[in-house]
Design goal:
Length: about 325
């Protein structure tokens, strides 16, 4: 299909071949596009529908030697289901519009320019990467609705899972894995609140390298507050302060766009924040068809889901913000 003036020639077969050859990396591109948030989490590949992740808890201990010693079994394995849900997208696109975007709005698609035109693989990659933005926006707030039509309906995000556990009283102040703030965060008190969060962590969690998963607004207020209260300290030679004051450089701010406007922050090691995907089976697909003149249709299907490895106070602290 071609236009003699300014349209680069392309063939449906080229796009279908690119989708076949590059199926696996193309299907992973939405995750790569969301990497600014997912880099703070741990990905588990090969998860199709569900896999049990377990933590062992034991009160077994050494005691003075006795030949007849036999302790009662104190070791329990607690399982949590990392569920991934099968989702799909069917997206129409006009190849030359994408090519024009990739080459620059002012590109003249004639002569030598055709030789430098983006490949079918790059055009498909651009479409697939765009899916990652909407996925990134709902990593904590997504709520599974099998009848829905958006990324927010595909799976249960970490915030939704936490809400369910709070409702079931498995996450609570009494259990030590929930903290409820009683004052609104400002650029005056943000450092004090961050320190309060750190000091309220279980001692085992304080010893681990953790992230404080928060909004960008909180990170900005923390920086303003830090700058105002530590301006005379020599080592404060840059505006951003990645580590939370008082954490012994163990708790790092992780501002995420998906937590903007939400009512909860989280403290956990990266290993506790799991997301699952399936990059090993043929169930995940990407195909290209031409149902309309000048338009191609990309159809793709993939698995995705989130879970906490553990909600024990030694691995997780949920911070409920003041109303």
């Amino acid at each position: 299909m071609a236009n003699e003036n300014h349209i680069i020639e392309f063939s449906l077969e080229e796009y279908q071949e690119a989708a076949r050859i590059w199926r696996q990396p193309l299907l992973l591109l939405p995750l790569f596009a969301a990497k600014e948030s997912l880099k703070f989490m741990t990905g588990i590949p090969g998860v199709r529908y569900s896999v049990a992740v377990g933590t062992a808890e034991s009160n077994a201990q050494f005691a003075p030697y006795k030949a007849s010693r036999m302790s009662a079994g104190t070791t329990d394995v607690i399982y949590r289901d990392l569920k991934t849900y099968f989702g799909n997208v069917v997206e129409k696109f006009e190849p030359n519009s994408v090519i024009q975007l990739l080459m620059g709005r002012g590109a003249a698609f004639i002569g030598e320019a055709q030789k430098n035109a983006p490949s079918a693989k790059l055009v498909l990659a651009t479409i697939m990467k765009s899916l990652g933005h909407n996925l990134e926006q709902v990593l904590f707030t997504a709520e599974r609705d099998a009848t829905g039509d958006t990324s927010a309906d595909l799976f249960d995000g970490w915030g939704t899972i936490a809400d369910l556990e709070i409702e079931a009283e498995k996450i609570s102040v009494a259990k030590g894995n929930l903290m409820e703030l009683d004052e609104e965060i400002t650029d005056v008190n943000a450092v004090d609140i961050a320190k309060e969060i750190v000091y309220g962590l279980d001692p085992h969690l304080r010893q681990m390298d953790c992230f404080l998963y928060c909004s960008q607004d909180f990170a900005d207020k923390y920086n303003e507050s830090y700058l105002a209260t530590h301006s005379g300290i020599i080592y404060n030679d840059k505006f951003e302060q990645a580590f939370v004051e008082g954490s012994n450089r163990k708790v790092t701010l992780a501002p995420l766009p998906c937590l903007e406007g939400t009512d909860k922050f989280f403290v956990a090691p990266k290993e506790n924040m799991l997301y699952g995907y399936d990059n090993m089976s043929d169930v995940e697909k990407i195909v290209v068809k031409d149902y309309e003149p000048f338009l191609l249709t990309l159809a793709a299907a993939m698995f995705f889901g989130c879970q906490f490895y553990s909600i024990d106070k030694r691995m997780l602290k949920v911070i409920k913000l003041a109303d």
